[in-house]
Amino acid sequence: MGCERIEELLSPYLEKELAKKDEQAVENHVLTCRSCAELLSLLREAKETLSSFPELDVSESLREKLYDVPQKKKRFGSVFDFLLRPSLQPVMAAVTVFCVILSFYMFHPQRAAINRSIERQFHIGISKVEKLYAEAESITQSLGEYKDNILVSLKNLNPFRGDEDEQPKT
Amino acid sequence: MLVDAYSKKVFNIAYQFAGSYEEAEDLTQDIFFKLYNSIDKYDFERNFTAWLLTLARNYLIDQYRKTKWEKKTRDAFDERLLQADSRSSPEENVLTQETKKIVWESFNHLSSEIRMAVILRDIQGKKYEEIAEIMDLPLGTVKSRVNRGRLQLAKVLKEKREKSNGM
Question: Residue A137: which domain range?
């Protein structure tokens, strides 16, 4: 076994997790390889050092703050719960999109050009609407002119009249 | 009460992970805030300690990822830790203090995931199976991360000693 493979086995070796065969291989290797023997010794030292790190006590001030956490949650919780309701998600998404567009507009370096473009589009829109309105008015007028003719034609056609020839003679 | 039972454990993991006493206090408060917010999601079939530590682990790693560029250094291995370490004799302290200092500071060389695995295994003394549950990882991955973390720490220890010996 090479040093690279032995390196992988050193940690499980320290924890006695290796099969007998691998354990023997590690022991034989470190007898002859100074570098791996040193690494094993350093690993053992690091592991022992880590396990000797003390646990610190929690300070009184932190303990008090932690006791206050449920109160803090009550104060802010209801507002957050309301805002984070799933039914409000589409509204939140719409507000976000609006804010993104608004921020894009507010902080764009060529804001004046955007303003001009919006104004132009607005006027184009208004003139289109006016044009449509005028067209609609002319159609209404035309219909008014033909209204009488249409009514007379409908009267002559009289779709509800029925077949008078087949009525019995009195 | 949750605070009495779990605050010490959560605070120590936060301190060992973040390396700053003040930051660990803030993180502990955040974790308890999260705990109270998600307590209704707790599955009663799960071990509560493992569930809480999963929550703590997720929060610590998320926070670390968000601010890792600000965290180049840890608090010095100072009086707080040495005073708390009442097990060592004064003679032993002289020999081991330096090693402890190097290992403590070397945590910054470990990635957040490896650091957490090493803390849970070697400082907190958890079983690999518990760590796999807390970190939501396969057992083999946990073992490999702990192994890599220890090797990295051993190599830093070697490097620092060689430097201090002027080699």
Answer: 115-157
Is there a contact between A53 and B96 if contact means CB atoms under 8 Å apart? no
Chain A residues lying within 8 Å of B36, measured CB to CB: 69-70, 73
A170 CB-contact burial (10 Å; exposed 0-12 / middle 13-18 / buried 19+): exposed
Q: What kind of fold does domain B2-164 have according to CATH?
A: Butyryl-CoA Dehydrogenase, subunit A; domain 3 (1.20.140)
Is the residue at A89 inside a domain? yes
Using a 10 angstrom Cβ sphere, with 0-12 exposed, 13-18 middle and 19 or more buried, the burial of residue B147 is: buried
Start-end of H helices in chain B: 2-18, 21-38, 48-67, 79-84, 90-106, 112-118, 128-135, 139-164
From chain B, pick out residues whose CB is under 8 angstroms from the CB of A13. none
Residue A60 lies in a domain: no
Q: Identify the contact set of chain A against chain B, taking CB-CB distances under 8 A.
A: 7-8, 10-12, 38-39, 42-43, 45-47, 49-59, 62-63, 65-67, 69-70, 72-73, 77
Residues of chain B positioned with their CB less than 8 A from the CB of A70: 36
pLDDT by residue for chain B (167 residues), tens only, comes to 788 889 999 999 999 998 888 889 999 999 999 998 888 888 888 889 999 999 999 999 988 888 765 566 676 666 666 665 555 566 666 667 788 888 888 888 899 999 999 999 999 999 999 999 999 999 999 999 999 999 999 999 999 888 877 65
pTM of the model: 0.68
Give the whole-angstrom CA distance, residue B9 versus residue A92.
38
Distance from CA of B65 to the nearest CA of A (A): 24
Indicate the residue of A45, A46, A63 with minimum beta-carbon distance to B3: A63
Number of domains in chain A: 3
